[in-house]
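User: What would this chain look like folded?
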Amino acid sequence: MTTSVQSPLSRAIRNAYKKKEEDETLSPLVLTGTSGGPLGRIKKGDAVIFYNIRGEREIELTRSLTEKRFDEFPVESDMELNFATMIEYRKGLNVHVAFPPEDTLEDTLSEVIARHEFKQTKITEAEKAVHLNFFLNGKNDAPFPGEERIIVPTRKDIALFDEAPEMSIREVTKNILDKIRDPSCNFIFANFPNVDVVGHIENEKAIIRAIEEVDKCTGIVLDACLREGISTIVCADHGTVEKWRYPDGTIDTGHTDSLVPFILIHTGNGLSLRHGGELSDIAPTIFHLIGIPKPAAMTGISLIEQRGITECRRLLLLVLDGWGIGERNPANLFTKARTPTMDKLLERYPHTELMASGEAVGLPAGTVGNSEAGHLHIGAGRHLYSDRVKIDRAIVDGSFFRNAAFLDVMRTAVKKNAPLHLLGIVSFFSSHGSLNHLFALMELAKKEGVKEVFLHSMLGRRGELPESGAHYIETIEEKSREMNSGKVVSVIGRYWAMDREGNWDRIEKTYRMLVYGEGTAVRGEV
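Assistant: Here's the prediction, encoded as structure tokens.
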């Protein structure tokens, strides 16, 4: 990353680091003018583009700024913002959508199972509800006939999950066991989120506790499946803490590009699994096991090498979220944990390793995997281009700069002599967005003659080097000087701005920063 001359905001961020604040939970910083008042607040009639992608963590803040009858906390009434989002965060939001979703994805894992009148249940805790209910179903919120969803509430009595690495896994496990004992339930899809969630926090002991709790509960679930004669698949959607340190020894709290395990516990001797598979091969494998023809839309291939196998009528797919495969070294926290269940599974049962990152899950080559792309490809059984790839291609071919949603917002701002606010994550690596997208928007705003462009930046240390936030703010401000357009006027940790669990106190803090300028005042250059 390019380091430029420190601005007041980047200096303020570095001072916050000295006080043990981190990017993820950074308290709001607000740039002020010479009179002491906050600069660049969002006012009635302004133009706003929320350029984040992925979408599930962006809904709450978008609602607070655009919903006419929003009542989760006090807001300004009828802001009448001309508001655009990069992708569709949720149907029905009062926004323009620059890159709307394509037609509904058909013939997904859940849809095909429902079509064959198999009763299915999905079980996890609220942290991963969107992945099982939306992404796994091909970005379709509605349950299919015979589909039950059990979502265990996420704990609200802790600030960060390293305080309780077990999260709600025991309640999730209890619900899985209940469904294992229910003979009418044919297919169970469950997710243990602990390793992924806790792995984003710099607390090695807590991560090891999370790994060991997942391993323990996996053993409990598998013992119950064996007693009931239920076939079981144990796999993961992406890696995390098997590469918990960069080569220089600093901590990497992000996802990885590692392979992930696929383990099959199924009746019959001599089963073997092929190598070189991907997450999109999981759905065809399930159909192979339960005797359902694979739909033509699925390009994935069953991982089971034998043709004639004993079919099962009941199956559990257990996703150990974030459980990647890595080398045995000090940077691999799985090797520091006690994992007797996984050790036994890998010793006794057929297993293989699956690609779960980059082009295998529709992401740019060389990029790390994530839960959204992972669950989408597990359910789709085929390759699907991610929103990031579509947007990157649009920038290259120029269609980004002709996008109707962007042009409507910007040209209306020019006509009304209103400022444009660009709101989003600042990162080259986050699955929520890219600086390249921000820079393209800044370029378009300048081309369209928008006079004032205010930047509101969210920081998050996931897959980033320490103190990346300050570097990114410096990079953006240097770009703004080069273009003679745009000014960073507020910065906040993503913890406060990007929630999906109804923690409205966090969203309110972000809202009040954006609209009222509440936060630590940072005096701008005279």
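The domain at 8-100+389-523 is CATH 3.40.1450.10 (2,3-Bisphosphoglycerate-independent phosphoglycerate mutase, substrate-binding domain). If you want, I can go into more detail on any region.
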